[in-house]
Description:
The chain is α/β, with parallel strands linked by helices.
Amino acid sequence: MQFDVARIEVISEYKAPAISPHIEYDMPVSPEKAVNNWVRDRLKAVGSRGIMRVVIKNASATETPLATDQSITGVFKKEQAAQVDLALDVSIQMLDEHQFIAAEVSGKSSRSRTEPEGQKLNERDRLLYDLTYDLVKGWSDEVTPNLSAAFSKWMGVN
């Protein structure tokens, strides 16, 4: 999508703690990085003035251990060992010449999935990648239709 703005900036208000249960630092693509990729791939600045701002308010990823059977019978079971929860809250803003918000579209998305015991590292990475993709797709599906309505004044510039 092309917009009549000089630049598009991404501001992250979310600072991921590098401690458990947060796992953003340990993911193939964090939710924050995925939003940056989405912006780079889908939004284009083709004007000479004005700013579109993408504000990442939340891009969290946590992994919570689940209780598993530690008895002798637990050795023969393959249980779910952890739950991964991802959350995304992002706004796209059009700023006027005084840097005030002239138009805004916001969206939220969240996804959860459990991880099985004994999962290999590449399987875990694939699960996290797919979950992040699904998270951003859900957010994108929510905000994309609203972009045309809210930002029609700045769209369609060639």
